[in-house]
C-alpha cells in the first residue's frame, strides 16, 4: 500500500514523482514521507534518470504535514522526554539531479517547504502558496525561515508567515517564488520540456553547477537552519504543541484559504 502513496513514471530520462494521497489533500504523514524519500533516492541512483519532477495528484500539491500525525509525534516525544531528533526530516533527501517542482494546486506550510526544497518551481494557474505555521501554532522545522526569504525576500516572507495569507500563482511569479506560471493542463508538458532541455546538457556539469549554487548558499546561510531547528525543539517541548491546541487551530485554515479574496 505504501508504494502507491508515491507514483513514479520514468520516460526520456525524466522521472515524474507524484504524491498520491488525495483523500487528505496529499498531507504528509510518516508513510508518505518515508515513501517519498525512498522514491526520490531511487531516482537519484537510477542511471536512466537525469532530471526529476515532483508534483501532486490534483487538486492539491500538498496540504502540509498531517496535523494529527504531528500532534501524535509531539505527544510521543513528550512522553519519552525526548529531543526532536526522531522527527522526520524534510521529505526531499540530498540529491544531485535537478528537481523541478510542478505545483499543480495549493502548497501549504509543510507543502510550501516541500516545494521550496526543489531546485526551481513551475506553477499551474491553480497553484496557491501559504505559510500557516502561526495559524496552527506550530514553529517551522523544515528550513522555512531560510528558504522562503531566499525566494521572495525577507519582508515578503515575514508578511506570508505573520498573516498566513495565501499568495496566488501570478503573485508568486512576480515575487520570485516560482519561475513560470502556465495553464493547468500544460503544467506537466511544460515541466517535461524544461527537463528535456536540462537532460540535453552534459549531466555531470549541470549537477556540478547546481551543487555549486547550493554550496555557496550554505556559506551565506551560516547557522540559520540550526537556529530554526533549535526553536522548533523548544516549541515542541512546550504546552503550545499539544494535540488539543493544534486541533483547536486547524479547522479554520482550509475554509479561510478558500474564502480569502487576495
Secondary-structure blueprint of this entry?
Blueprint: E1 6-11, E2 14-19, H1 30-45, E3 51-56, H2 67-80, E4 99-103, E5 106-108, H3 110-116, E6 120-124, E7 128-130, H4 133-136, H5 144-152, H6 154-163, E8 167-168, H7 169-175, E9 180-182, H8 187-199, H9 203-221, H10 224-236, H11 243-259
Parallel strand pairs: 2-3, 3-4, 4-6, 5-7, 6-9
Antiparallel strand pairs: 1-2, 7-8
Helix pairs in contact: 2-11, 5-6
User: What is the count of β-strands?
Assistant: 9
Helix-residue proportion = 40-55%
Radius of gyration: 18 Å
**Overall spatial form:** globular
CATH architecture: Alpha-Beta Complex
Q: Which structural class best describes the helix and strand composition?
A: alpha/beta
- CA distance, first residue to last residue: 39 Å
The CATH topology: 2-enoyl-CoA Hydratase, Chain A, domain 1
Low-confidence stretches: 76-84
Average pLDDT reading: 87
* String of helices and strands: EEHEHEEHEEHHHEHEHHHH
Strand content: 5-15%
Main sheet attributes: strand count, strand direction, barrel closure: 6 strands, mixed
Helix tally? 11
**CATH class label:** Alpha Beta
By CATH, the superfamily comes out as 2-enoyl-CoA Hydratase, Chain A, domain 1
Strand order of the largest sheet: 1-2-3-4-6-9
- How many separate domains? 1
Amino acid at each position: 500500500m505504501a508504494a502507491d502513496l508515491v507514483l513514479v513514471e520514468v520516460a526520456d530520462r525524466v522521472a515524474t514523482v507524484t504524491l498520491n494521497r488525495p483523500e487528505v489533500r496529499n498531507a504528509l504523514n510518516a508513510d508518505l514521507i518515508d515513501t517519498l524519500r525512498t522514491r526520490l533516492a531511487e531516482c537519484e541512483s537510477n542511471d536512466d534518470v537525469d532530471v526529476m519532477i515532483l508534483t501532486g495528484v490534483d487538486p492539491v500539491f500538498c496540504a502540509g504535514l498531517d496535523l494529527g500525525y504531528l500532534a501524535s509525534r509531539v505527544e510521543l516525544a513528550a512522553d519519552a522526554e525526548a529531543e526532536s531528533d526522531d522527527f522526520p526530516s524534510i521529505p526531499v533527501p540530498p540529491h544531485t539531479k535537478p528537481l523541478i517542482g510542478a505545483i499543480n494546486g495549493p502548497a501549504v506550510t509543510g507543502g510550501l517547504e516541500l516545494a521550496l526544497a526543489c531546485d526551481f518551481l513551475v506553477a499551474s494557474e491553480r497553484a496557491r502558496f501559504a505559510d500557516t505555521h502561526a495559524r496552527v501554532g506550530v514553529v517551522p522545522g523544515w528550513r522555512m525561515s531560510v528558504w522562503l526569504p531566499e525566494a521572495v525576500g525577507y519582508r515578503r516572507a515575514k508578511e506570508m508567515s505573520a498573516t498566513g495569507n495565501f499568495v496566488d500563482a501570478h503573485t508568486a511569479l512576480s515575487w520570485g517564488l516560482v519561475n513560470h506560471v502556465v495553464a493547468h493542463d500544460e503544467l506537466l508538458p511544460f515541466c517535461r520540456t524544461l527537463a528535456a532541455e536540462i537532460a540535453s546538457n552534459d549531466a555531470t556539469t549541470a549537477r556540478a553547477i547546481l551543487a555549486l549554487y547550493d554550496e555557496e548558499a550554505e556559506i551565506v546561510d551560516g547557522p540559520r537552519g540550526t537556529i530554526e531547528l533549535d526553536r522548533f525543539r523548544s516549541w515542541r517541548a512546550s504546552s503550545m504543541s499539544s494535540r488539543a491546541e493544534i486541533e483547536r487551530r486547524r479547522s479554520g485554515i482550509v475554509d479561510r484559504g478558500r474564502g480569502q479574496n487576495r
